[in-house]
Amino acid sequence: MLCKRLLLSVAAAMLLLGGIGQGRAETGAEKPKYVWKYATLAPNGIGWAVHIQDLLLPMVQERTNGEVRVKIYWGGVMGDDEDILKKMRIGQLNGAGLSGQGVTMAVPEMTVLELPFLFRNYDEVDYIREQMMPEFDSLAEKHGLFLVGLIDQDFDQIYSVKYPMNKLENFEKSTFTCWYGDLEANMLKALGASAVPVNVPEISTSLRQGVVDANIGPAIWQVGSQMYSVYKYVNTSKIRYSPALMIQRKEDFEASEEVKAYKEAILEERSKFVRQFTERVRVDNQKCLDAMLKYGLILAQASDEDMKMIAERTRPVWDEMAGVLYPRELLDELLEHLAEFREEN
């Protein structure tokens, strides 16, 4: 009972922070020159939404001298990531905060960041972001987008209703939600698992109704959706890093010299904003994971030998998806930077 109260208090604290953040951040100029409409799956008051309100909105208002107001549609009211991107293309929305799934749709080449067991820790993630940001900017621009921020969904964990997921044989007995598209589908196939394609809003229902029994996702989502009450096991091995994106239509910054200046002003603040945002998300996810373990989720870590077997099964996926989801050259560059970083550290 105490642990359940702890989980509820985590969620309540996020809701409180969200309410405070919204009141402060969305109070802008009385008559802004421009209103940019954004949408996201993030529910208002939890995790990413709090940090958007506390960090992004004040930054935009300050750097545009209060001439831009960002209006955000929270919690999937504009649909899932696919729907949001469609509405951006027709001009109904200016921008979005996308989940890892949305990244694969908006800038498919950036799927390279989500390869299984690619990164070992946050330092490697941050190094690759710093080294390859010009390439990511260029790729986004090719798709008609401006990267307001390449942030974290975080390292995702493996959750299961039935099995500890600490051995390869557990994957072979499991049925996973598959919400990340072809990369995730191929990874699960390599592990011998069954996969049921679902959209984000369907994940909770699929698990509760027994259509699937396992999921790969971030801790904060498991708390926000109250899925912690369904799962029995969690394996916290870094099976994949998931980026998230704050994006805006490139054409929005081409209307006038004034609006172009807004883009440059945001770029000047972007590194600071991304650093602060990712630091907060990482703390949130760890708090949520700790709370779920105290609530009663069983930590099912794999032995080094079993983890090596699981990782080795997924390694061919890197090459199978090269030339399909991302250019081979992009993967090679990323791996070269990683090798340099690991040698130096």
Automatic annotation (TrEMBL):
<protein>
    <submittedName>
        <fullName>TRAP-type C4-dicarboxylate transport system, DctP subunit</fullName>
    </submittedName>
</protein>
<dbReference type="GO" id="GO:0055085">
    <property type="term" value="P:transmembrane transport"/>
</dbReference>
<dbReference type="InterPro" id="IPR038404">
    <property type="entry name" value="TRAP_DctP_sf"/>
</dbReference>
<feature type="signal peptide">
    <location>
        <begin position="1"/>
        <end position="25"/>
    </location>
</feature>
<dbReference type="Pfam" id="PF03480">
    <property type="entry name" value="DctP"/>
</dbReference>
<dbReference type="InterPro" id="IPR018389">
    <property type="entry name" value="DctP_fam"/>
</dbReference>
<keyword id="KW-0732">Signal</keyword>
